[in-house]
Automatic annotation (TrEMBL):
Residues 988-1104 form the Response regulatory domain. Residues 382-435 form the HAMP domain. It comes from Pseudanabaena catenata USMAC16. GO terms for molecular function: ATP binding; phosphorelay sensor kinase activity. InterPro entries: CheY-like_superfamily, dCache_1, HAMP_dom, HATPase_C_sf, HATPase_dom, His_kinase_dom, HisK_dim/P_dom, HisK_dim/P_sf. Residues 445-475 form a coiled coil. CDD domains: HAMP, HATPase_EvgS-ArcB-TorS-like, HisKA, PAS, PDC1_MCP_like, REC_hyHK_CKI1_RcsC-like. The modification 4-aspartylphosphate is found at D1037. One of its GO terms (biological process) is regulation of DNA-templated transcription. The keyword Iron does not apply. Residues 472-517, 597-653 form the PAS domain. This is Circadian input-output histidine kinase CikA.
Amino acid sequence: MTAIPPHSSIPTVTTASGVNNSLNMVCKVRKGFHLPLSMLIIVPFLVSTFGIVGLIGWLSFRNGHDAVKQISNQLRNKVTEQVKTRLHSYLELPYILNNLNSNSIDLENIKGGYEEQRIQMQFWKQLRSFPQISNIFVANTADQYLGARRIRNMLAVENSLITSMTDELGRSQIILLARRGFDLRERSWYQNAIEAKRDIWSEVYTDVITEEPAITAVKPIYAPNGEFQGVLGISILLGEINHFLQNTKVSDRGQTFIMEPSGRLVASSNADVAISIKDKKSDRLLAIQSQDELTRIAAASLKEYPNQIDDQIQQSFIYFHGEKYFLQVSKLNDTFGLSWQIVVVVPESDFMSQIKENTRSTMFLCMVALGLTTILGVIAAKWITRPITQLSLASQSIAEGDLDQKVEYSCLVKELAILASSFNQMSRKLKKSHNRLEEYSHLLMQKVDERTQALQQEILEHELTEAALRESEEKFAKAFRSSPDGMALLSTDTYKHIDVNDKWTEITGYSREEAIGVNPTDLNLWVDLQDRDRMLAILEVNKRVANFEAMFLTKDGRKITGLVSSESIEFGGQVFAIYALKDISDRKLIEENIKESEKKYRDLVESANCIILRWDTQGKICFLNDYGLKFFGYELEEIIGTYILDTLVSSQDISGEDLRNMIAEICSAPEKYQLKENGNICKDGRHVWVTWSNKPIYDDHGKLIEILSVGTDITDRKHAEKELQSAKEIADTANRAKSEFLANMSHELRTPLNGILGYAQILKRSYDPNKHQEGLEIIQRSGEHLLTLLNDILDLSKIEAKKLELNPSEFELPKLLQSITDMFQLQVRAKDVKLIYQPLTALPNTMYGDEKRLRQVLINLFGNAVKFTDCGSVSLLVSARALELNNYKIRFEIADTGVGIAPDTLTDIFLPFQQVGDRARRYSGTGLGLPICQKLVEMMGGKLHVESRLHEGSTFWFEIDLFEVPHYSRSLAIDSRSISGYYGARRKILIVDDKTENRMVLNDLLTPLDFLVVEAIDGSDCIVQAKSFDPDLILLDMVMPELDGHETTKQLRQLPMFQKTAIVMVSASAFDEDRSLSLAVGCNDFIAKPIDPEALFKVMRSLLHLEWKYEELRSSESSLTNNSKSKDATISPLVLPPNCTVEKLLQLARMGDILAIQEEVILLQEANSQFIPFSEQVLDYAREFQIKRIREFLELQIQVSS
């Protein structure tokens, strides 16, 4: 008995035809419109690529356009600010000068004469100093008018009646214009100044002389009580503003012009005239009437806009010849009522050319990218569709009954390879199942076979789906975790984080636990929520966002720049949002640094204070910076592309070196010419010296393409080197002259020392006053000669150190000249020489200058003339030429008929230590006289000239300016009597010197005058002697061993008992710095050695308040003195001040207040020059501390007046 299986387990037996039928049923395809898989792959890819590329191109164009607009605004604002700054500086000058003039001019005291000349001269000097000023004037309420005016290239002064041209010194010369009925008080600006009561500007008008626009700054002047006195005015020309605007353009075709609110043109950058001249009358143009069409259109467009608010900038645009122009208007105001409009116009095309070029480049790149994308899409589609087509053909073959089908699965796409492998496995199983079914074909029905086949297909598909899903999840999780960017998964409903990767936590600083369940807004990740809203809007429209840049805030508060990319994905049947966050802060920082570096490089090149030049191997100029253009005088268009030779570098150097092969040599061996000095030429033909630092520039293949040359102007250094060489030669000459001087000086020193030492030995053996009187005189003259030598050397050293100063005072010029000629009368009697003194013109009597230095110059020149003249004549010719305000130019000329000076040595006579002439005469001098004379004359404002012919004679002459003193008070007669003592208590003197002979001289000089004298041998001994002796005066030597004079003074002043003791420093050094240092350490005065008794007595009288006793004069001398005093009294009679003043002085004299007497007398002579003789008499007694004589003099004057 055969067992029959259950129905469900019995396999269905199916024939081959049945299998084919079942496969055909499964593989039936619904008829209709079908698209190829390659098209479905390529077309969306191309559309998305084209959209993205087009969007990037559009954004690039829009961003470039916005950047150009921003740069245009910045340039216009910069030009406007430059114009405002320049105009404020240009228009500030008149008010500064008005303020200065208002402080120096008293309108109530303009009474003609000197005051008018002073005001006109002040205005004239200001005009000469400031060329932009055309007129300066002052007018008061009395219809008095004074001013100075610029007439083309000359200056004129004017008043209410006339206008006169002036010479180079400001003096009136030619009357240019006479006025009648001229009343400034009727002018509109005069009335406006009164009404405004402050500084104002006049309206812009046309200057009648220059026919240029001008404007006047008017300042009303008020008295301290508020009463109006008049006005000050300064007019300036506005033509300079045109030049400034022409040099301050925004671009090549841009324009800048200035206009008034009324529309009248003030200035323009296109050299447009602001004035129209019709029928010989000038009138100011409106801007809409300008000769320039662009200016007219811009001015006309301004009428469409409302009036500007102060400091507000209006920006708009206009169209000119179909082209768009940017227009900017700003207002220029000041505190004095000035109101102008500054208009800047610039074409948009000057900035858009580069943007259009970039747009074309972007479109080209987009087309290239689109083509590449299409090619790659076709290739990718073929890769994908080829295995699918094979699967389709194999399936059709199986459906047709051919079960021996095998698909190659060497495909690059992993999923398709899996699908091919599964298909082959399915094919094998089908074939096996088919064979098994054939065995059961007789037992099983077709139904069982169909059910089995369907079940197997369902199981296979389920397994494949589960495997693919697991593999996809694993891939997503792996990519999500290991992504180099921060990744986060969001819910599309709440936008809360579902998961974040490690990179996200690293960027934001939040942990996964802190981020999951919280949206980015709650974490404060967005710095600007508007960025978030914009990104969400893009995501909602496009379903994806790519590289959205925004600022984010990390947990620790840092701000970072990030790129966000986001899109929606379907996962497990749900829709999620995933976004990637990439930190680009470092990249942005690098970009900013690169921009800053580029900006610094541009600024460095543009503002470098050196020449920066690039040129190629052919010698053509590729680049030259602004400094180089300005230095050589070229414009950029003129220089680029030209050859260096004969443009910047001449074919032959200044030094004569041939430079024609220099370019080739530098290019062949640039390392040899890294530093090169050579002569260069400028556009105007000037030759300059430049040091070039050359650096070769190579391409990627190591080929030399350019030379970068950085140049430094060394023209001044070359000139200085040349001058240094000349100075060295002069110094060598001076050194040789100095050696000759030392040889001559030995003779000059030994000759008087021979007389001094010889007669000193004779007097030491025996002394007869009558017999040796001449010897004593020789000793004194020899000592004075040595002192003169030392003074000459000191004068020269002071002059070279620029420490010699002039000490001007009043002196009688004729008396000085006569005394000099009398001095040499005795000397010329021994020669056959005639001495001539001849004033060529009337000489002023009393002058103000340095009499001592003038006497020194004349004596030296006169002495040289006498010394070098053996026969003939020596003449002193003097002439005077009046200048202005009591000033005279005095010419002194000393001529002789002596030996003369050879032409080749004429320039050497003014060198220190240099002597010319025969040896006998040269050894009688030091060679310092003429150099000292030359320097002294230059200090007095003149120049010493010489003309000479050998064996015919020489002429020295110079001119100096001296001031004549209108009222001169003759000095009182000097008391020539010898001092025999002093009145009052006996005074104690401490003499400190390490040289015994110096102490003996002072002791022998002071002891006969009844002074109690004690000596100290050094500084330490001085302190000991001073403590025990308590002197009234200490005469202290400056240079001593161990403790010098300065240190001794410091220690004495630290002791309380010597705080007020008089100390006088005695030194052989006569330099001012030694005097200053001595006074600084605490000395009361300074005396130079050899000591002059009169100078010593004067210092002692001042410090010890002494009144000297004098020896009685013989009767003949007494009568002579009385006659002299009578003569002086006749010449300068005393004019007494009021009795109250005399009584006040007498009261001060009785109190012994010398300082108060001197102050009162000085005020008296300043108040009235008639009291000068009286004041000088009292001051002379006060300087001598003769209180008793002051009382007697004042009491006598009171008796005379009563």
